[in-house]
Amino acid sequence: MTMKPRMYIARLGNSDWPRFAVRFGKLRYFTGKGWSRSLRDALLYHDEQEAENQAIYMEDNTPPRRFVTTAVIFVDCTAPFTVEAVRELLEYSDVSLILDDEIELNDVDVYVDLDWREVEEIE
Predict the structure, then answer these.
(1) CA-angle at 62, arms to 10 and 51, nearest 5°
(2) For 19-62, what is each residue's pLDDT tens digit?
(3) CA gap 74, 70 in Å, rounded
(4) Which residues does 114 contact at the CB level (< 8 Å), separation at least 6?
(5) Domain tally for the chain?
(6) Sheet of 28-30, strands arranged across
(7) Contact residues for 39 (Cβ-Cβ < 8 A; gap 6+)
(8) In Å, what is the CA distance from 47 to each residue of 18, 24, 52?
(9) Residue 53 resides in a domain
(10) What is the pLDDT confidence band of residue 2, given thresholds at 50, 70 and 90?
(11) 29 near 38, Cβ under 8 Å?
């Protein structure tokens, strides 16, 4: 699974003096060399298409960071549940990350991809 960061075009200025910036999430602006949380540091484009082209280029050339861990899956049911049934369940399921409201990760997207083929039962 290849997921890309979410980059957007921020519309700035006004109708007489339109300007555009590349935005990563809600809080970071492209400076031309890196990212800043300050809008004052943003590299401004006078042409929206040019800003869009820059965002597309950066998305296509920014690989997502990947982390790996062991997941323990608990199945609580009264009927017997086989490993094959768990694999099938995972194959047709999506996993999401639910964060507490106090955690501010407005500019981060987390995707969970389980390799269900390696599921085995532990005692």
Answers:
(1) 30
(2) 999 998 777 899 999 889 999 999 999 999 999 999 988 888 87
(3) 13
(4) 71, 90, 95
(5) 1
(6) 7-13, 18-24, 28-30, 35-36
(7) 10, 12, 21, 29
(8) 8, 18, 9
(9) yes
(10) very low
(11) yes
Backbone angles phi and psi of 54, in degrees to 5: -65, -45
- Residue 50 falls within a domain, yes or no? yes
Contacts of 54 (CB under 8 A, 6+ apart): 22, 30, 45
Confidence (pLDDT) at 114: 78
Structure tokens at 109: 């997207």
Beta-bridge partner residues of 112: 95
Q: Does the pLDDT of residue 110 top 60, yes or no?
A: yes
Q: Rounded CA gap, 112 and 95, in Å?
A: 6
What is the Cα–Cα distance from 86 to 60, expressed in whole angstroms? 35
End-to-end CA distance of the chain: 31
Outline where DSSP puts E strands in 31-116. Answer: 35-36
- Give the structural domain span for 24: 7-60
